[in-house]
Structures are given as structure tokens and as C-alpha cells.
Amino acid sequence: MGTTIRDVAQAANVSIGTVSRALKNQPGLSEATRLRIVEVARSLGYDSAQLRPRIRRLTFLLHRQHNNFSASPFFSHVLHGVEQACREHAIVPALLTAGPADDTIQQLRLHAPDAIAVAGFVEPETLHALVALQRPLVLIDLWAPGLRSVNIDNGAGAALAMHHLFGMGRRRVAFIGGSLAHYSIAQRALGYRRAFFEAGLLFDPSLEITIDGGLDPDTGATLAMQRLLDAARARGEAPPDAVFAYNDAAALAAMRVCLASGLRVPEDVAIIGFDDIAGASHAAPALSTIAVDKEALGRRGVELLLEEAPATPEIVLPVRLIERASTATQPHNAHAAHAANAAPHALAAHAQST
Predict the structure, then answer these.
(1) Which CATH architecture has domain 57-150+295-317?
(2) Which of 47, 68, 85, 266 has a 20 to 30 Å separation from 213 between CA atoms?
(3) Whole-prediction pTM value?
């Protein structure tokens, strides 16, 4: 007679129900416990495939604040990556958007998915309820202890941006951030502060500003950049000589405010964003940014859901710096005026080459 689930439970010193949850890849167990049970089952020769249901339907849960693909196209690319992976594995994906006032769990019960991918931000109580559904779950651009997740290396991205600005000789670098309840934004803000420490430079907290809650990145960053300029003017100080924004939409808004105020980009204020959305390369001047493989976030999220025993439940994807005209090195004196006026054509060519 072959190995039974009872044999696995006895060998692992857990209940039959715990073995069942572990081998079905259901939430409710720590990843360490699940991996231990899977290894015990494998060592005993137990065929866990008979317990593990095939994922046929996947719900991609997106917070309503992210569901404006025209204003913030980041998650449209993530969703495209999810859809690509689902096609490859014969999974039917469905998009569900929800906010704090919605009965998300009831909606999910109506969807009846075999697995759930949560992207971006979600309220803690909603995440707790999702875990309680006992469905395979993966977090994309989001992190929580004990759950499978796929993220970009936000800290490394912030370091790349800041070291690039420091390398230009910029020292009064402002940061325009969003809500720190968002994992990725919090990591970028931390990377911004850490860069000053690692470079041995003085960090000025007044240069870190958060956009007002409830505002989209464009509107919020416009107001935030104006506050930075107004505060510098009120103190009789020069404005920041560089701005690192938490995403490209915020960076582009900050750039418009600077240009409208008579500041030159990058001669007076260098500006860099994050995510490399399509509009970044078409801006005038073209926006430097930290490039993210957004579709890979979605693809790897689906692939991680399908893995029985992943080597790591937390995947971190690399990022890279794309230098464009908004941070192109320019001299900072009056003799550079002619060169600055002649630069746009050369900078445009440089932007296309990157």
C-alpha cells in the first residue's frame, strides 16, 4: 500500500488537515511549515498532486485608487503580464477593482476564483480577510510576512536615482512621495533617506514632502512641488537643485511646475522619476527614470502561484537607471547659457539613444 496523507501527518507531527492545506498550497500556514511538510511528503514518496487542485480561474484584485490606467498606467502593464502568463497556463483571469467601502470578500465569492493575485495597495483588514479565504494568494508590488510576493528592488532603485543626482553635484535633493502605507513608496522613501547617510551628506527633512491624501499623482505632485518652491522663497533660500519623485507621473508634474516658475531643467533643477512609463521619454525635456519591468511583475506573480515549493516565496526583480535630458549634466554658470539654449536637439537625440 502506498503512502497515505495520514502517514505524512504522523511523520511531520501535524494534523491531517494541516498536511492537506500545505500540499494544496493554501494560505493559513507559515511558509517554513508548509515547506517542511512538502519535504516530508516528498521523502515518503507521497503523490501530492492528488490533493493539489489545478488553478483554472484567477482573480486579479486591484484597489480602486489604482484603477485609472490612463493617469497611472503602471498597473495596466502588470495586468498584461498576468494575462500573458494565464494564457500560457490555460488559466482564465478576471479583474476585480475594490475600495474600502466595497464588500470585496463577497465579490470574490461571486467570482469563485481558484487563486488570487493582489496588486499594489490593499487595506490590512482586507488582506487578513483574503488570507482567511484559504485560496492560493500572491502579492504583486506589495509585501506581507509569510505570504508569497513579487516586488521590484525599490531600495536599489532609489539608490540608483540618488547616486546619479549626487554624481551631478546636486546636494539639495527633494523627494516627492505618496502614502507610506504603500509598500513600494515606503521603500523608495527609505532609500532616499539612506542615500544621504551612505554618501555622508546632511539630510534636510524639509525637502521630503508627501502629496496630500486622496489626490492623484499629477495633482498631488503639482501642489507638493509648488510648496517646496514657496517654502524656499519664504526662507530666502535657493530652491532644491534636484527632485526625486516616487513615480514618473509625479516627476512630470513637478517638472511642469519648475518650468512654469522659470527654472531650467536640468540646469537649475534636475528631475528623476520611477517606473519608466511611456510618457517619460516623450516629455520635454525627456524624463530620467528608474526602469521597471512591469509585465514581469505580473508574469512572475502567476508563476509563483503555480510553484509547489518555490526556492523563495519572495521574489525581487532588478531595476535600471535610464538617464535622459532631465538629468543631463550641464554647467551651472552664466557662460553656459548659449550651450543650454543649443542643448535640446542633442538631448533629444540622447534620449532616443537610451
Answers:
(1) 3-Layer(aba) Sandwich (3.40)
(2) 266
(3) 0.79
